[in-house]
């Protein structure tokens, strides 16, 4: 996904003229992120997924969304490596974003919003 994102940004920003070599060249990844000043698409998806998870965690136990999140279908699994579940992705994202103790912060809405907001600001590409 990051490759596609950079490809689109390169297309939008276009080539730059290099005065040293006196020719046109494409922008490097660092130059792209410096000029765009937005989090990557992966980071945006991660934060949106965690925001949704916090919303579901604060719901009542009988709500359909919360029941589906923790539902166990009880079917036999296929051979080979188990597929990643939504819970696995959320746990990995939470570990990356919140570090230790991120699951306790979910239940406090203001603290959770602050954590996600700070993480978004931290991952803005620097110049």
> What is the N-to-C order of secondary-structure elements (H for helix, E for strand)?
HEEHHHHHH
Helicity range: 55-70%
The helix count comes to: 7
Largest β-sheet summary: 2 strands, antiparallel
Strands, count: 2
| Chain-averaged pLDDT | 82
What topology, given as strand order, has the largest sheet? 1-2
What's the end-to-end separation, in Å? Answer: 22 Å
Looking at the structure, what is the overall shape?
A: elongated
Can you tell me the number of structural domains? 2
Unreliable stretches, pLDDT < 50, 5 or more residues?
Answer: none
Strand content: under 5%
Secondary-structure-derived class: mainly alpha
Estimated radius of gyration: 20 Å
Explained architecture:
- The chain is mainly alpha-helical and 127 residues long.
- It folds into two domains: 2-36, no CATH class; 41-73 and 80-122, no CATH class.
- It is 58% helix and 5% strand.
- It is built from seven helices and two strands.
- The chain has a two-stranded antiparallel sheet.
- Strand 1 (16-18) and strand 2 form a beta hairpin.
- The radius of gyration is 20 Å and the shape is elongated.
């Amino acid at each position: 996904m990051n490759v596609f994102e950079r490809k689109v940004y390169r297309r939008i920003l276009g080539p730059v003229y290099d005065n040293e070599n006196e020719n046109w060249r494409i922008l490097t990844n660092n130059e792209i992120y410096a000029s765009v000043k937005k989090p990557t698409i992966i980071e945006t998806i991660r934060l949106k997924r965690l925001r949704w998870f916090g919303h579901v965690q604060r719901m009542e136990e009988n709500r359909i969304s919360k029941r589906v999140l923790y539902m166990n279908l009880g079917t036999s699994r296929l051979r080979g490596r188990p597929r990643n579940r939504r819970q696995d992705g959320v746990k990995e994202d939470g570990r990356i974003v919140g570090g230790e103790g991120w699951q306790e912060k979910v239940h406090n809405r203001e603290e959770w919003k602050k954590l996600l907001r700070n993480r978004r600001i931290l991952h803005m590409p620097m110049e």
